[in-house]
Amino acid sequence: MPKKLGFSTKKRVTTDVETINTKETNMSTNTNIPTTQNEWWGFWGAMQEEAPAAWAIALPAIATVTGCEPDAVRAFLDSRHGRHFADEVKNHLLKGKALADAIDATITQWMTWTIGRLTSKQHGIPRGLPYLTGFVVHCEIMEETAE
Questions:
Q1: How many domains does the chain have?
Q2: Among 7, 32, 76, 111, which is least packed, fewest CB within 10 Å?
Q3: Helix (H, G, I), strand (E, B), or coil: what is residue 7?
Q4: Is 44 contained in some domain?
């Protein structure tokens, strides 16, 4: 079975996945931030009253660092993985960090972690990929296959 980027073809929507686009513009200039489709769970639900401000910071920052489209990041933040991401942001807030610093610290942490053998086997995400990038792409694929 052929593989590209380590994603199982059984778990992918397409066989061609572009990972680097050198013509991509800086995501921080993108003003089109998708809104949540999951106000009761995921990142938005976990962040509660801080959700609007946190969403406006987290979504473009994650898109920039992962190189993923804002809609892919929205799918991630709306998922159970987005809820776990929010839990970590809240942990940093409890330590006294400002919201933007808490989100930045969580992004840094999730980009430092890498996908291990078990997670790769369970979700079809390439082993060794940064955790945040892997789960953003995974959530995008899962959302596309559900449609």
A1: 1
A2: 32
A3: strand
A4: yes
What DSSP string describes 117-128?
HHHHHHH-PPTT
Specify the DSSP class assigned to residue 4: B
pLDDT band at 32 (very low <50, low <70, confident <90, very high): confident
107, 41, 33: which is closest to 72 by C-alpha? 33
In a domain, residue 27? The reply is: no
Question: How far apart (Å, rounded) are the C-alpha atoms in residues 115 and 123?
Answer: 10
How does DSSP assign 60-74, residue by residue? Answer: HHHHHHH---HHHHH
Number of neighbours of residue 3 by Cβ within 10 angstroms: 12
Structural domain that includes position 123: 38-146
- Token digits of residue 135: 């789960």
Per the listing, tokens 């962040």 go with 47
Mean per-residue pLDDT, 110-132? 95
Cα gap 28→57, rounded to integer Å: 10
